[in-house]
Write a structure and sequence with these properties.
Elements (H helix, E strand, L loop, with lengths): L2 E6 L3 H13 L3 E7 L2 H7 L6 E6 L8 H8 L3 E8 L5 H6 L4 E4 L4 H11 L9 E2 L3 E5 L7 E5 L5 E5 L2 E6 L2 E5 L4 H9 L4 E5 L2 E4 L3 E5 L2 E4 L4 E3 L2 H21 L1
Length: 245
C-alpha cells in the first residue's frame, strides 16, 4: 500500500531534493506539494488521506510550527525539514514525529522513514527493469545506476557490500545484503556461489576445482552448499550450447 506524502516548503530547491528522495523509495508517493503555507492550509483536506507531511519551519506568512497546529490532525506523521536546529523543542511540542536538519542525506532520510514504518522498511537499494540504483558510501546524497548486464559480482566483506563492474568497485553500507541476494536470485542472470557472494552468469570465464574466474580476472570461491546448483547450471548451459552448435 502506498504511503501518501505532502511536502510544504517555500524553497523550490528543497522541494525538488525531497521529491528526488521520495522517488527512490517506491512505497512513498508524493500526492501534493506547496511553496505557500497558506495555500497548503486551504487545500489539504481530510479526504487526502495523508500519511506523512514534510514541512519546513521558516516560511513567509505562516511558520511551520503555526501551520502544524492547524494541520497535525490531518496526517498520521509529521516530519519537519529545516536548516535550523533551534526549533527542535517547538517541533516536538506540536507532536512532530521527526526533525530532519537540512542538508540531510538519503541515508538519514531513509532511516527516518524506517523508524516510522519498521515493518515496511524501504531498501536503500532499488531495482528497475534494467539496473540497480545503489547508494555509494563516498557520496550518500546520490544514487549510482548499475546495469544488470555490467554487474559482475555482488559480495559482502565484513559490513560492506561490494558491487563490482568492469574496472570499478562500488562500495555501499547500510544495504540489506539478504534482501539484495533475494532480489538478484530472482533475476535469471545471477547465481549464488557462497554465503557472501552472488555472481553474473554472463561474466563466468572459467571454473576449476572450487574457484570460479569472472570478467577482469575476479576469482570467487564456490562453497559446497551451492556447488550442486552451480554444476547443474554449467551442465545445462553446456548442453544448450552444444545443441545450438
Amino acid at each position: 500500500m502506498p504511503i501518501n506524502c505532502i511536502a510544504i516548503d517555500d524553497d523550490v530547491n528543497s522541494l525538488e531534493g525531497l521529491n528526488s528522495y521520495l522517488s527512490v523509495l517506491p512505497d512513498l508517493q508524493l500526492i501534493k506539494s506547496f511553496t505557500d503555507p497558506l495555500r497548503a492550509l486551504t487545500d489539504i483536506s481530510d479526504s487526502d488521506k495523508v500519511d506523512i507531511i514534510f514541512m519546513d519551519i521558516e516560511m513567509p506568512a505562516l511558520s511551520g510550527i503555526e501551520l502544524a497546529t492547524l494541520l497535525r490532525q490531518k496526517t498520521k506523521h509529521l516530519i519537519f525539514t529545516t536548516a535550523h536546529s533551534k526549533y527542535a523543542l517547538d517541533a516536538f511540542g506540536v507532536n512532530a514525529d521527526a526533525y530532519l536538519l537540512k542538508p540531510y542525506t538519503m541515508l538519514h532520510f531513509t532511516e527516518t522513514i524506517n523508524n516510522l514504518y519498521p515493518n515496511e522498511k524501504p531498501n536503500i537499494v532499488t531495482a528497475e527493469s534494467d539496473f540497480l540504483s545503489v547508494l555509494h558510501h563516498e557520496d550518500p546524497e546520490n544514487l549510482i545506476n548499475i546495469a544488470y548486464d555490467n554487474l559482475i559480482i555482488m559480495e559482502q566483506i565484513n559490513e560492506m557490500v561490494y558491487f563490482r563492474i568492469h574496472n570499478h568497485n562500488y562500495i555501499s553500507f547500510k544495504v540489506d545484503f539478504s534482501k539484495m541476494l533475494g532480489l538478484l536470485r530472482s533475476h535469471n542472470s545471477f547465481i549464488q556461489v557462497n554465503t557472501n557472494a552472488i555472481i553474473s552468469k554472463l561474466h563466468i570465464k572459467s571454473f576449476s576445482g572450487n574457484q570460479i574466474v569472472l570478467t577482469d580476472g575476479i576469482s570467487v570461491h564456490l562453497s559446497n552448499k551451492y556447488k550442486e546448483s552451480f554444476l547443474s547450471f554449467l551442465k545445462e548451459n553446456l548442453l544448450k550450447n552444444n545443441f545450438n552448435n
